[in-house]
Design goal:
This protein is an alpha+beta fold. The chain is 33% helix and 19% strand. This is FAD-linked oxidase.
Length: 537
């Protein structure tokens, strides 16, 4: 009881401090504490929170502190001890740039301010942090890029910031193996791969952390040719709950190695490096094509016909719903596809078959035989922090009928328009991904043609709480209806969805039981925990 009182008082103090220094966060904190009308608030899907203690229990890394008997708010001397132990430095709220370092990409969780930030520069720094949080019974979260869709890299306790552990290097004599440090952002990985003339399965967003990307599977335009990014993981090093720094590969701790290939970040330890198999970077054709007419027919043909494209082809289809202002300006819904084609026996025109003649060429572009990394500049996505939620599932082309396509566009027309456009998207999977068995790695989602997602985006200063609630309600109903009509299954663990009911089965399917066994072996007391953490068997 005393611990819960301390937890509650600590959060109230943090709320008052945050509101004083950041007036725009008032609504966020009210929503987090269940004092606002929105049903889908802070770590949504759990309903309204009864109070501050309940909110804290759902924050990343908080279960350990809530259940342990230690103190939650360490004395100044403890922070001094941590600063001496972490060579990369420790930031406190009064330090310059504290807010910049702790701001997540999803501003929905931006009001969750850490008590301190440990900027780890080595595995020894990470080990010092693990020892300290256990001594202080302190909740914590681990972050590199800060792009967790559900805010799982935020915490009111210690934020273990990995971004100073950055870099990628070719391992001499290892036939193209590249070692990537645990805090490296995608942009740094890309630059090093370009220098080496190599590539991997990689994403488009250059500010995403390589660790979270790799641990949850990792999708990108190369995945149909080379497999998921996690399929290319040759070895990894991590600090486990007992403070050990261990290596896991096919011959050493193979069960942990298996779990790190799709088991999701934050479950088994703090990964300090990844050794990846790479491939030669060769010229590709890149494209961004748009259709503005016959949209339902175009989308249906794309989803069916592209499913049989060669493995050299990778794509992402966007159906974009305009923002409130864009709708006032009469901007219509559009269908577009972004992607690349490695050297292939088929041309783009042959791959697109029926839809090629309907492309709006005034809004489209094709660049042929471009050097690989120059082509990625055309495809790259640089994001800024905003508010959002994403829901995902996996589909087979054969299950996507005319009724389902019509329903998608009906739902698009019903979108409560916010200040930002939204989209429902189809990331093309299949190919090499489906040639790996669902239990060979922890990434279970094999045998599908498309990874479907529908987003809700908003900007809090310009969108009311009621409109946000309506948008999230629309998103849920859209998702449920389309999944039913297409027999869609599962959800992508790298698109964590805090409103997902049976997330355990959705993310991990038949691999959940084995993942729970690995968790029991390396973290039986659940030191590494958050709202959707794997629990030990």
């Amino acid at each position: 009881m005393l611990l819960r009182v301390r937890l509650t008082l600590f959060v109230i103090i943090r709320i008052i401090s945050n509101i004083k220094h950041n007036p725009q966060s008032r609504m966020d904190w009210l929503m987090a504490l269940g004092l606002h009308s929105s049903r889908r608030n802070f770590l949504v899907g759990a309903g309204r929170f009864a109070g501050a203690a309940a909110a804290v229990r759902l924050m990343p890394g908080s279960a350990f502190a809530a259940e342990a008997g230690g103190a939650y708010c360490p004395p100044p001397s403890a922070w001094s001890d941590l600063a001496k132990a972490v060579k990369g430095g420790v930031l406190r709220p009064e330090d310059p740039f504290f807010a910049d370092v702790c701001r997540p990409n999803n501003l929905r969780y931006g009001a969750t301010l850490p008590a301190g930030i440990a900027r780890c520069a080595s595995a020894a720094d990470v080990q010092a942090c693990i020892q300290w949080v256990k001594q202080q019974a302190m909740p914590f979260a681990v972050r590199s890029g800060g792009h967790s869709y559900a805010g799982f890299s935020t915490t009111p306790g210690l934020l273990i910031d990995m971004t100073r552990m950055a870099g990628a290097e070719l391992l001499p004599g290892k036939d193209g193996l590249v070692k990537v440090l645990g805090g490296t952002l995608n942009s740094a990985v890309y630059k090093q791969m370009e220098r080496l003339g190599r590539t991997i399965t990689h994403g488009r967003c250059d500010s995403v952390g390589a660790a979270g990307f790799l641990l949850g599977g990792g999708i990108g335009f190369n995945m149909r040719k080379y497999g998921m990014a996690s399929d290319l993981l040759n070895a990894t090093e991590l600090v486990t709950a007992d403070g050990s720094h261990v290596k896991a590969d096919a011959g050493t701790d193979s069960a942990l190695y298996w779990a790190c290939r799709g088991g999701g970040g934050g479950n088994f330890g703090i990964n300090t490096s990844f050794t990846l198999e790479t491939r030669p970077a060769e010229a590709v054709t890149v494209f961004n094509l748009t259709w503005t007419d016959k949209l339902p027919k175009v989308l249906k043909l794309l989803l069916i016909e592209l499913a049989t494209a060669p493995d050299d082809f990778g794509s992402k289809i966007n159906v974009t719903i305009p923002s409130r202002q864009e709708q006032c300006d009469k901007v219509p819904v559009s269908v577009s596809i972004l992607g690349q084609l490695h050297k292939s026996k088929m041309t783009l025109k042959e791959i697109f078959k029926s839809t090629w003649e309907w492309i709006d060429w005034s809004k489209s572009k094709v660049m042929e035989d471009v050097p690989y990394w120059a082509a990625q500049d055309f495809l790259v996505e640089t994001t800024f922090p905003y508010y959002y939620q994403e829901k995902s599932s996996y589909m087979k082309a054969a299950d996507i009928g005319d009724e389902a396509i019509a329903a998608m566009f009906d739902w698009a027309a019903k979108m409560p328009a916010t200040s930002m456009p939204v989209a429902f998207k189809f990331f093309q999977v299949g190919g090499a991904i489906n040639r790996v068995g669902p239990t060979e790695t922890a990434y279970v989602h094999r045998g599908y043609d498309w990874l479907f997602s529908v987003e809700a985006n908003w900007w809090r200063p310009t969108d009311s709480a009621l409109l946000i609630e309506q948008a999230l309600e629309w998103q849920q109903r859209f998702y449920d209806d389309v999944n039913r009509r297409t027999k869609a299954q599962g959800a992508f663990q790298n698109f964590p969805d805090p409103s997902l009911a049976d997330w355990q089965r959705a993310y991990y399917g038949e691999n959940l039981a084995k993942l729970a066994e690995v968790k029991k072996a390396v973290d039986p007391a659940m030191l590494f925990t958050f709202a959707q953490a794997i629990r030990p068997a």
